[in-house]
Amino acid sequence: MDKAAKGIIAIDYGRKRVGIAGCQAGISIAFGITTLVIQGLNDLLKQLGPILEERSVSEIVIGFPITLGDKPGTLKDDILKLKERLTAAGYTVCLVDEALSSVKAAGKLRQRGRRAEKGDFDRTAAAIILQEYLDGYLPPLGEEEINQD
How are strands ordered across the β-sheet holding 17-22? Predict the structure, then answer.
């Protein structure tokens, strides 16, 4: 089944700002939806709820930071809690390596030739994560990659 045939979004998680990207059903082209300014996990889930409902989301891709030393980054615990809460709510959630998504986002925004706001980086990074997932370049991470210390 084509991954884009169902409602799918990507999340570029940060403790203050969270980039959200999606794609239209049946079309494998990702685009930034919004950047949420949050105050903790509960606030994120509250703001995310209407987006998930409006877009009929069944699958969520979350960028998971793997450092250059192949270790999970500092946001590991936050992201695992987010995955747990979304899975408990009935969503299919997969974690993918978000390595260099912010660098790629900055490059794309520079190419556009206009000044980018902070939120632009987050939703663009989420769109890059989703596009690379849809294209098969970012497979879901395995337990051994997620739980490395």
Answer: 31-37, 17-22, 7-12, 57-64, 92-97
Q: Which helix (H) or strand (E) holds 119?
A: helix 118-134
125 neighbors 102 (Cβ within 8 angstroms) = yes
Q: Cα angle at 111 between 107 and 115, to 5 degrees?
A: 90
CATH numbers and ranges of domains, the chain: 3-137 (3.30.420.140)
Helix (H) or strand (E) run with residue 41 in it = helix 41-54
pLDDT digits (tens, 9 = 90+) for 98-139: 876 665 655 565 666 666 676 677 898 899 999 999 998 877
pLDDT, tens digit, 9 for 90 and up, residues 54-84: 999 999 999 998 765 545 557 888 999 999 9
Whole-angstrom Cα distance, residue 64 to residue 42? Answer: 19
Amino acid at 18: V
Q: Give the model's confidence band at 1: pLDDT under 50 very low, under 70 low, under 90 confident, else very high.
A: very low
Q: Which letter does DSSP use for residue 138 in this model?
A: S
At residue 81's C-alpha, the angle toward residues 92 and 31, to 5°, is 50
